[in-house]
User: Fold these one by one.
Assistant:
Number 1:
Amino acid sequence: MTEIIDGNAVASEIRTELTDAIETLADAGEQPTLATVLMSDDPASETYVSMKQDDCEEVGIEAVDVDIDPDAPAEELYDTIDELNADDGVNGILVQMPVPDHVDDREVLRRIDPEKDVDGFHPENVGRLVAGNARYKPCTPHGIQKLLDSAGVDPEGKDAVIVGRSDIVGKPMANLLIQKAEGGNATVTVCHSRTGDLAAKTREADILVAAAGVPEMIDGDMVQEGATVIDVGVNRVDADTEKGYELVGDVDYESAKAQAGAITPVPGGVGPMTRAMLLYNTVKATGRQADVDVTLP
Ligand code: NDP
């Protein structure tokens, strides 16, 4: 029987455990606060931000919502970040990507105070992650580490293959899995659009992480029997539904499930974990800034 790794259930456990940490902070007079900054009128980005705000509210994190006109000069966003950096009442800052073309997204990442960078994308935090001394682990790969743990899959000694080398998923995933630390110690291969014979690589994987953004590109023929398959992809494909589309992963679920030992569904796998780990990083940030010891799950 293939184990279906239930991201909703694991995320819910993490949120419950975070509630205890938030109480500890409250006892010390600290209210964790996340500022979300949206400079876009893309409906998907608006939805992501409002979901993040709802998540915050549910666990007792205050969400500060900053909207910037997408046509405003880039400086308006940079100045907003400076103000949030200087605001002691704000513990975490998240700028929803993508920002408009006239804004330099690297400048945005550099500008956020690394102590408040709960996405973990500031160059200093990326460097710390690579060096094995992460301040804030990026939410999606950190959530995947938690999912593996929940399924009893220890990466130590295993061959992990990651399809995708983006800065937000593929690269930090590789960095976490190769660390000489709990949840790491895997032998990692990172594949991308120029990889020759992708299937030969994926078939070697004991742990296969699909993060390419290509609907259902990994099918059962590309999966080793008994492998753990983590599907990060969230792709809209046309479908005869009320909305006119449905969400599918990068993995062809049915054929991959027939081969896999464990697999994450889409939706209900990695997505809820990404959201939970943002809350985790915000609570961690608050503890660090207030010098309060919080026990995190
Ligand atoms: P990017 O587009 O930034 O990166 C995609 C990566 O996949 C690139 O490295 C690209 O290679 C590689 N790739 C693309 N096509 C192929 C192919 N045919 N064969 C092999 N490699 C390929 O995407 P993200 O990392 O941001 O996101 C990946 C997916 O995960 C998307 O569907 C996204 O929506 C989803 N996502 C889901 C999250 C969640 O919480 N569930 C969070 C973040 C992302 P190259 O570098 O050569 O171009």
Number 2:
Amino acid sequence: MPESAVARAAISLIGMPGSGKSTVGRHVAKHLGLPFIDSDQVIERRIGCSIRDYFETQGEAAFRNVEQAVIDEVTQLGGHVVATGGGAVLREANRGALHSRTTVVYLRSTPEDLARRLRHDNHRPLLQGSTDPLHRLRALYQERDPLYRRTAHFVIETGRPSVHTLVNMVLMQLELAGLVPVATEPRAPHP
Ligand code: S3P
């Protein structure tokens, strides 16, 4: 497969907060030699404050409007790996843009695993103030898992493997689908 095929590959990662989209996405991008974009970081640059503060002052709907504009832009770039926010799949327009313009990988985690990973987190507005984060995560998961599945081309079960293993699972899936060239040597973990 010509290298230019990788250069055109547009890959996006979706999944619940704490599923590892940004970490895995950054490593996958490095392995493929593609630029990485975290759509939440693009949003924060645009709104000029943290997403958490924006939620508090402007409300969720205003945040979703900015998110939709950013998803629309970043999915048109091609040749990038994009990590999205956990709620990006809530709007149909985002699901359509992601699915039709990029190869979408859903990093699926159970609410139990997510609760364990997010137990010290105080950045995610939808989990703040909840006395029972696991209950909240279960509700979010129930609503969103069907949307993630509908949007994704591939589902990767994250379980509890290392980042390196997860990155390899994503790369192997992309290779099997013929979307990126097959690695000829074992992949060393990227720094
Ligand atoms: C959100 C997830 C966040 C961020 C915003 C809303 C959500 O991204 O976009 O706080 O609705 O689940 P992460 O998935 O990176 O936490």
